[in-house]
């Protein structure tokens, strides 16, 4: 990073992911200034626990989601329903998943069980053509 304060915030957030509950974000979103008057990028640092080995020998602790807010806001539930043929419950869960704090938290906000959320996510994956939650977030953010 060009800005030392932003660099410290990013490193601190990544390091905190190794120590915190894997269902909670690792700090607040981090704004990163770009050159030539472009709108800033926003980096969300999310906990990541892989079931597979890391080729570098250490388990991954964080996932960085980089957003360019000028690309537009996340589509609302009705737009998602129309675009991907989601049910109202699936669209609501998809929007809640964008908050980045995991399936259990999203399920709680939607008032559904984790098992129901898992079923909805399987259907959402099929309808959006993705296989992983990270891919789903990217597809939804680009909607």
Could you explain how this protein is built, in words?
The protein has 143 residues and is α+β, with helices and mostly antiparallel strands. 45% of the residues lie in helices and 11% in strands. It contains 6 helices and 3 strands; from the N terminus they run H-E-E-E-H-H-H-H-H. Helix 2 (77-84) crosses helix 3 (88-97) and helix 4 packs across helix 5 (114-128).
Write a short abstract of this structure.
By secondary structure, the protein is of the alpha+beta class. It is about 45% helix and about 10% strand. Helix 2 crosses helix 3 (about 90-95) and helix 3 (about 90-95) crosses helix 4.
Question: Which SSEs are present, and which pair or pack?
Answer:
Layout: H1 4-17, E1 30-32, E2 41-47, E3 62-67, H2 77-84, H3 88-97, H4 103-110, H5 114-128, H6 133-141
Antiparallel strand pairs: 1-2, 2-3
Helix pairs in contact: 2-3, 3-4, 3-5, 4-5
Helix content, binned percent: 40-55%
Strand order in space, largest sheet: 1-2-3
Structural class: alpha+beta
Low-confidence segments, given as residue ranges, are: none
Main beta sheet: strand number and arrangement? 3 strands, antiparallel
Strand content: 5-15%
Tally the helices. Answer: 6
Keywords:
three-stranded antiparallel β-sheet, globular, 3 strands, 143 residues, alpha+beta
């Amino acid at each position: 990073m060009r800005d030392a304060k932003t660099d410290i915030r990013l490193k601190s957030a990544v390091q905190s992911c190794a120590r915190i509950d894997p269902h909670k974000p690792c700090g607040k979103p981090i704004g990163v200034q770009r050159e030539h008057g472009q709108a800033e990028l926003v980096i969300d640092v999310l906990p990541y626990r892989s079931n597979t080995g890391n080729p570098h020998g250490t388990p991954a602790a964080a996932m960085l989601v980089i957003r360019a807010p000028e690309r537009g806001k996340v589509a609302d539930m009705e737009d998602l329903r129309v675009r991907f043929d989601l049910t109202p419950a699936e669209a609501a869960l998809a929007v809640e998943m964008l908050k980045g704090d995991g399936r259990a938290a999203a399920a709680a906000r939607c008032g559904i069980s984790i098992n129901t959320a898992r079923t909805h996510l399987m259907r959402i994956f099929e309808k959006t053509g993705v296989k992983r939650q990270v891919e789903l977030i990217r597809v939804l953010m680009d909607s």
